[in-house]
Amino acid sequence: MALYDNKLWLLSHIRNSFISTDDTGMSELVMVGEDLPKHLADKLDSYRDPDDSEDDDDMSHEPYDIQLDMEFEGHRQRSNTAVRLEKMDQAKKRAAKVKNIKWELSTVPLTVEDINDLFVRKDIEKNRPVIRKSLLTEQIERCTNLPQNPYIEYAKFDGSAQVGILTRKYKIFLTMLPEEHRNYPMIICCVATAKIEELIGFILLKCSTIHGDFPLKPASHYGLYITEEDGEVDHDFPHLDPKECVAKFGFTCLGLVELKHGTKNVSFESSQVIIHNDPDDILNTLNKIPMVDEAKQITANMQLMKVHATAMEAPLYQSYRVYIVNKVRAKAEIHLGISGEKIEIDPLQQKNSKFTFVRQKPVSHHIDSLAWCEITDTKSSGTAFRVVYSPSFGNTASSTSMTVSGPSQSPTLQTSASFKHYDFEADHNTAEEIVQKINLILELRSSVSRKEYIATRERKQHRRKNLHLNK
Amino acid sequence: MVVDSSNENDQIILATGGYDHTIKIWQTHTGICQRTMQHADSQVNALEITPDKQSLAATGYQHIRMYDLASSNPNPIVNYEGITKNVTGVGFQEDGKWMYTGSEDHSARIWDYRSKTPQAAKIFQTSAPVTSVCLHPNQVELLVGDQSGVIHLWDLKTDHNEQFIPEGDAAILDVDVDPEGTHMAAVNNKGRCYIWSLTFGRDGEPTKMNPKHKFNAHKKAALKCKFSPDSTLLVTTSADQTAKIWKTCDFSLLQELKHENQRWVWDVAFSSDSQYIFTASSDGYAKLWNVKTGSMEREYAGHQKAVIALAFRDIAP
To answer: What Pfam families does the entry give (chain A) (predicted)?
Structure first.
């Protein structure tokens, strides 16, 4: 390395390293701004061209490899000393909670009273009552048929409370559990030398002790997938190689997934080693009844959460493939794009039909022009739904407001004039989702068009009622 | 420290510790580890539960640490120091008035517990590292075994002491007295077991010890010996990878507790009805054995390295 015999470069490097690692900031005050004196620089660097020194002075001697990260602009990077000091401080704090008692014999020997108080000779009763059964014996006898936890061999990979050996902490989402337990991670700490399959075994062991009533399969039936912090398993990547060491992977958030196509060599015997729900199992019987209620409560909460979530997501853009139905009942497949801003109708190219019944042009409506959306018909082939909109929205905003303020106008006439509609058809689930989505958006915005439409409808109903009454 | 009978105390406690610098508390009937505590800087040499069942004493290199059993604090709450070498044994006076320890710095110590801060009360010096300490059930005589093969009978009240040397150049590794106070057993590094019959000392006289029996219990070093609570059995553990149960009536072998690859069996404890035995071994497991059948009934897995100490408190209805 040529640079290393360059005294000037080395000097500059030392200066910079010192400044950049000095936490106190004192060095900067002392060595403020100024670079090396010019005559010294000339003496040290024989290769330096004195003429162009002004131009490249700052550049050439600034070691580029110790530039501080931009992220640390606000605060200085902590040096090793600071980290060590903090560790010592923590140890001290922990030690402060421990009472230390030192062996120090006082020079004054114990008094006779002390000795008489401390050391009292006890008469040992002969023929002491024989204990027939201890609590241990009772408990062991009560669970004689308790099958051994099949994952017990994985217990040694537990990394919690280990001192002096490397451990790794994971958030594990257990996707095979019932819904109420699926959405929060289990914190697992294992030794860094464990393999992925051993980590899986250890997870199952912990899982079996916590969720004792859930049947689990042998460790080879599960795979660990990379998972988002919110518990969404990323199926795009294969599950982590079970034979690899956990230390090889840097992910801290994983999802345990039951593999659909279990490995072929799994014998019948191994699949029998499932934890049975032993009625004698104290753990289970104790918690069963309150657990059921709790589970119900959790499921109810989950349902509520789901509703909130769909409401939150409603204004997000989503595209659906549905059929648009025109007045003569001809259908054409289109893309229906819905967002908080607008809805778009884009025709799909009909590949295999030589002629099309419907020529649908791509259109877009501002969401505030929409007035209504409802399911109109449910057939076995699909569900029809209708989106009502006001074509006059935007360009004739003033006229719309006028119609609202003019109640004397004939409602039938107004409906036909102000509102148009599209009819769509899709499979039941999609239709329902679209209707729910649009209605959530409409409720959120409650536009003029919508108010107007609702008012019209009410008037219509009112009129109908009146007709009935008059009859 | 008076034993109170609150509900918290109505539980079985099994604690194990060893070379992995951790102490684990187990649910005995399921084999599930309930809690792990850190024992930093040192292996765990010996464990004992205080008579009030509130704390667990763990001895290591140069200190004795007390852990709170009632809370979930993974760190010790009290640290006893001032000992220069390994602390090999620990125990408590039955009312919790004082704690006794034995250590490789050639001494046995009594720690006075009556005041709020325990203090040094008494020390007994030997000529060799102390390997085991055992309190006679009369609560005033401490038996101290050392590496040179001497067993000291130390009267705590009078400081009078007597020595017994069952065998030259063999280290005594453990000493125990049966709960009735009629027999004492000692095992050495040659696998031999010595039995004395004890007669009560009347009016403060020291206990009289008469050699009664000796037998080769194991092929290799014997590590622990312990009488059953009903005094009818004696269990010895050994480097020969077994634990053996002997009848105290004639010292005939009742059971041999063996398990493939269990390696050295370091420590042992009886259930209070003498029906079950716990062992701690170098394979990293603690095990539960049925005395009657000699079969292993439970295995306590979770330690990374050899388990060399265990403490057990049973509940007798």
So the answer is: CRIM, SIN1, SIN1_PH
DSSP single-letter state for residue B231: S
- Report the pLDDT value the prediction gives residue B157, as an integer from 0 to 100: 87
**Rg of chain A on CA atoms, in Å:** 39
| A250 and A339, same domain (yes or no) | no
Which one, of B286, B135, B128, lies nearest residue B207 by Cα?
B135
User: Hey, are the CB atoms on A135 and B275 less than 8 Å from each other?
Assistant: no
Give the residue from A127, A136, A152, A207 with the most B CB atoms within 10 Å of its CB, the best one to mutate: A136
CA distance A278 to chain B (A): 12
Are the CB atoms for B229 and B273 separated by under 8 Å? yes
Instruction: Name which of B286, B296, B254, B315 is nearest B25 in CA terms.
Output: B286
According to the 3-state scheme, what is the secondary structure of A95-128? Answer: HHCCEEEECCCCCCCCCHHHHHHHCCCCCCCCCC
Q: Which of A16, A47, A72 is the last residue of a domain?
A: A72
Cα–Cα distance for residue pair A222/A239, rounded to 1 Å: 9
> Taking Cα atoms as reference points, which of B122, B120, B142 lies closest to residue B130?
B142
B183, pLDDT greater than 60: yes
Q: Domain residues of chain B, as ranges?
A: 13-125
The Cα B300–Cα B32 span in angstroms is 7
∠ CA(A121), CA(A122), CA(A123), 5° rounding? 125
Rounded Cα gap, residues A231 and A184, in angstroms: 7
How many domains does chain A fold into? 3
Regarding beta strands B265-270 and B183-188, do their DSSP bridges make them parallel or antiparallel, or are they unpaired?
unpaired
Are both A263 and A333 inside the same structural domain?
Answer: no
Angle at B207 between CA B222 and CA B245, to 5 degrees: 30
Distance CA(A346)–CA(A342), nearest Å, equals 13
pLDDT over 60 (residue A224):
yes
Same-domain check for residues A326 and A460 = yes
- Other beta carbons within 10 Å of A440: 18
Judge whether A382 lies within some domain. yes
User: Looking at the structure, do residues A383 and A442 belong to the same domain, yes or no?
Assistant: yes
Domain that holds residue A383: 318-470
Closest Cβ opposite residue B276 in set A105, A140, A191: A140
Claim to verify: residue A322 and residue A259 sit in the same structural domain: no
Q: Is the pLDDT of residue A34 over 60?
A: no
Predicted complex ipTM: 0.81
Residue A84 DSSP class: H
Residue A313 lies in a domain: no
Mean pLDDT of all residues belonging to chain A: 73
Last residue of a domain, one of A72, A93, A117: A72
Find the mean pLDDT for residues A401-427: 57
DSSP characters over A155-169:
GGGB-TT--SS-EEE
- Name the residue in chain B with its Cα closest to that of A117: B97
CATH number of the domain encompassing residue A452: 2.30.29.30
Bridge-based pairing state of the strands B87-92 and B98-103:
antiparallel
The answer to the question of residue A299 being in a domain is no
Q: Is B119 exposed, middle or buried (0-12, 13-18, 19+ CB in 10 A)?
A: middle
Comparing A291 with A80, the larger pLDDT belongs to: A80
Which architecture does CATH list for B13-125?
7 Propeller (2.130)
DSSP 8-state code for residue A367:
G
Q: CA–CA separation, B307 vs B304, rounded Å? A: 9
Instruction: Examine the domain organization and report whether A333 and A273 are in the same domain.
Output: no
A156: chain B residues, CB-CB within 8 Å: 284, 301-304
